[in-house]
Amino acid sequence: MKKRFLSTFALAGVAALTMAGCTTETGTTTDDSTGESTEETTTEAGGGDEAASDVITVGFAQTGAESGWRSANTESMQAAFSEENGFELIFNAADNDPAAQISAVRNFINQGVDAIVIAPVVEDGWDDVLQEAASAEIPVILEDRTVSASEDLYSSWVGLDFEAEGVKAGEWAAEQYGDTETKMVVLEGTTGSAPANDRAAGFSSAIEGTMIETIDSQTGDFTRDGGKSVMEGYIANYGVDGIDLVFAHNDDMGLGAIEAIEAAGAVPGEDIKIITIDAVKDGMQALVDGKINYIVECNPLLGDQAADLVKKVLAGEEVDKAYYVEDQAFDQAAAAEVIDSRPY
Amino acid sequence: MTLLKHRLFWPVAALVTLVVVNVIANPNFAKVTMRDGDLYGNPVTILRESAPLMLVALGMTLVIATRGIDLSVGAVMAVSGAVSLTIIADSPDPGSLGTVTVAIVVAVLVALVLGAWNGFLVSVLGIQPIIATLVLMLAGRGVALLITGGAITTVTSAPYKFLSNGYLILLPVAFFIWVAVVAIVALVERRTALGMLTESVGINPEASRLAGVRSRGIILSAYMVSGLLAGVAGIINASNTMAADSNNAGYLIELYAILAVVLGGTSLMGGKFSIAGTVIGVLTVTTLDKTIQFFGVPPAQSPVFFAVVVVIVVLVQSPRVHAWGRAASARMRRTPSGGEPPTGPGAASAAKKREEVAA
Prior knowledge:
The structure holds two protein chains of two kinds.
Chain A: H1 2-22, H2 38-44, E1 56-62, H3 68-80, E2 87-93, H4 98-111, E3 115-118, H5 127-135, E4 140-143, E5 156-159, H6 162-177, E6 182-188, H7 194-207, E7 212-219, H8 224-238, E8 245-248, H9 251-263, E9 273-278, H10 281-288, E10 294-297, H11 303-314, E11 322-324, E12 329-331, H12 332-338
Parallel strand pairs in A: 1-2, 1-3, 3-4, 4-5, 5-11, 6-7, 6-8, 8-9, 9-10
Antiparallel strand pairs in A: 10-12
Helix pairs in contact in A: 1-2, 1-3, 3-11, 6-7, 8-9, 10-12
Chain B: H1 2-5, H2 9-25, E1 32-35, E2 38-41, H3 42-65, H4 73-90, H5 97-124, H6 129-148, E3 153-154, H7 158-165, H8 173-190, H9 194-203, H10 205-210, H11 215-241, E4 243-244, H12 253-263, H13 275-294, H14 302-317, H15 319-334, H16 344-358
Antiparallel strand pairs in B: 1-2, 3-4
Helix pairs in contact in B: 2-13, 3-8, 3-11, 3-12, 3-13, 4-5, 4-6, 4-11, 5-6, 5-11, 7-11, 12-13, 14-16
């Protein structure tokens, strides 16, 4: 039963990949392995596995499906760990429950998979189960978020540099607005979260010494509602003319801010400039429409790199402990060019 | 002195104090400007943004009056927002009034059914309210995510947007919606016997049953009203940003609604309830939310600031603290050299007790 379920899953993954391939016109795709051999791979899904064949069985413990970013990340992983790439993927989504995720990883160990990929829900509490994986000689690759456990307990990590995203956004702001007096308000992410802290730090360091002045900074909890509500407060307090620039830690809050600015009778992207981070579809659309001025990408397509790492580790090659995926950044003109080709 | 005795005096005093402190600290807090014949400004924003919490808290007031609690309101909001926006997104003509009407009616009906489910569990099966509504609180967001396919559904539809962003006469539509709902609920509860029957069920279910009150129907209807109002709140919430965010819509709103109800003077033990009190409680919570921003409280400290203000507001309203205050001032008058201030630990523990209840 489980195998049949998995093969359905594989089919869905391949189908998603094919669809992504169809909409691609320019050469910016990250996965070129579009499924032409759909029929064969799905029928074979239940067949040969383990060491007998060359198929690598990989257990992937995902956090859940909490955002568009996460869905894109899952799709990327499923596409990269596909049959035609020589993998059998056992997928588990933990609904953001750390305990459920740890037990999923334990299941992977018991099933005797060849490698485990984890996108940890939280940083702490991983020592025991990682030790068990190490004892069973199953390599562990971390994806996206990291863990507080000792580096010896996992093989490698692939993810994003939130601080670099902040720096990239800040450098653009400094270049564009740094020479004139610019009053900036910030819509922070969820207080205490790594992306919020690191993006803020990176941005601040990049605009240091310029004429951009942060007049206020409050949390919008990474949500549209939060972004809109806080932006309304800013506008009531400083007036539309008292704010020149908004830096939102993600697209959704930026989209909320657009609503607030429009409701106040001003033009977002003109009267008040907006810089955000993430580059999800709605955000990119707003960028093309001229309502956002600059977006730094937070790339969810980590699958290929993770798959590559798994192969290298299993082949006994030396790998680094951390790999940062390069993020792109778009202004309005660049966004118009790529928006149709982006898979997420 | 009779004014002091009025049960709404302290809730109103807390709200007025909050506003006055804000205006003194930052005059922009109360600044209202006229643009194109409509009023804009922070006070207007507070009235508009209060709408979802107001509707949810009204339903919560009725449920609490029957000795119940409804933890599922946030999840119901997410479901109703997801249902309405999915219907609009899938329709060929998202901007038409017909589509929007259908979307709203279907979403509200779904919310009503969810409320009826809660009421069925509580009144017919006799399950503890906190557990019965917990089921939907946990499952509801999953349902909403299923409806939206795990993504944030966005639409462009002028009539739908009008609900939360439009203006009628000077003021936002959302404000008129909650005023109308408050008026309807107040009329039905206070101009008929329903309010009294609800209170009797909450004060003593057994005695009221023996007296011939059909408590089952009253409890069921309270949960249905709560579900219905949460559904409308979900629609206004989705209309605010024109997006159905199933993970975040109405997140934790059940707790803020309970807080607002308690701040308004309705006891969590059930029985007597105050609709006017709830209205004031909701405005207090929303104003406090804006206060944090206008004071520029750093985000890391804002939960503490919120908690401290809530503790003070609850303390000020506590009858026991009033009694201590009176005793202390009487002693002061008798011995001008100075009596003892109200005992700290006692006051603190009373506050803590209320705090726990509120949380």
